Amino acid sequence: MPSTFLHPLGVAHPLIQAPMSGSNTPALVAAVSGAGGLGSLGAGYLEPQALLDQAAQIRAATDRPFAINLFVLPDAFEVDEARVDAVRARLDALMEREGLDVRTQRPARWAPVFSEQLAALREARPAVASFAFDLLDRTRVRELKALGIRVVGTATTVAEARAWAEQGADAVCVQGAEAGGHRGTFLHAPEEALVGLFALLPATVAALDIPVIAAGGIMDGRGMLAAEILGADASQLGTAFLACPESAAAEAWKRDLAQAEDHRVGTIYSFSGRAARGLRNRFVEAMAPFAGELPPYPVLNALTAPLRRAAAAAGRGDLLSEWCGQAAGRVRPMPAAELVRVLMDEYVEARHALA
Ligand SMILES: Cc1cc2nc3c(=O)[nH]c(=O)nc-3n(C[C@H](O)[C@H](O)[C@H](O)COP(=O)(O)O)c2cc1C
């Protein structure tokens, strides 16, 4: 079935490659869009100029539509200096113990300035702009739409999905509890908003009159069809694309994904200060006793960045933020365009089998 949201944009398949800040590349986005899906550039960690450069690289590689995604954040953050000092000491001790020759640093700023990122997104004019972590105010939603950019909000509960619809979003992406990476939750405590996709998707479809995109644990064409049967207008897959050669995930991370057991995939705060789904590894266990002392996102995320970079360079998956969904063990490493073809073949086959 053509997606009512994607098809009018010229996207052939009801398939979105999820934005994956830090792990996606222009090559991944272009490969998916070029193969008939909608590639998404997670630009949450990019400074405005880098966002513009990467959008230009995508355009140089494909003339197909693509999405850019941002984390909705305030432009400035309050910082508890005592917490920063305490966690820096913990992290530095950990790195020393693990033989990583780096130490934490206080960055010039904790995260790129959201309003500047949004201005760059407007200049880049992707077909679709998607957002996570909070609502975008109505004026900004209207301004994007006036530029011809379709707006997608991320929701982890029906109430959040309703809130995005009221802001004027063109579609909502529901992120089931299964989903890899950061939780988009903004109205509730994270542990209250771990709703499985089988519960969240049909309830959201019943509550809204805009298209609903399904995300979380979908790894193959059967999963895409199952989402469609539950009312999804399209499926958004992240982890499935993490093991592609075009993904920037470290090699150790890609290896660990293939061996991931479902019970080892959990909700983790200790890399970024915000709930995110990934592999519970050595770092997560080492930081568990200090859970109550951690500064929130984006402060902790910025402080762990040198450690994560060093761990990736050293092939230490056990110290990396190995984000992934609950179905990570089913990744199939292959070029992204090939994966799109395989997913669509499976989807068509599953439709025929049902018919
Ligand atoms: C490594 C990684 C990074 C992610 N980064 C983002 C992001 O920048 N923005 C966003 O809206 N969602 C992000 N997500 C969440 C995805 O949009 C999506 O909800 C999730 O990948 C779906 O679950 P799955 O990974 O099981 O397919 C990320 C997911 C992963 C695995």
From TrEMBL:
CDD domains: NPD_like (cd04730). InterPro entries: Aldolase_TIM (IPR013785), NMO (IPR004136). One of its GO terms (molecular function) is monooxygenase activity. It catalyses: 3 propionate 3-nitronate + 3 O2 + H2O = 3 3-oxopropanoate + 2 nitrate + nitrite + H2O2 + 3 H(+). Coiled coil: none annotated. Belongs to the nitronate monooxygenase family. NMO class I subfamily. PANTHER family: NITRONATE MONOOXYGENASE-RELATED. This is Propionate 3-nitronate monooxygenase. It comes from Fulvimonas yonginensis.
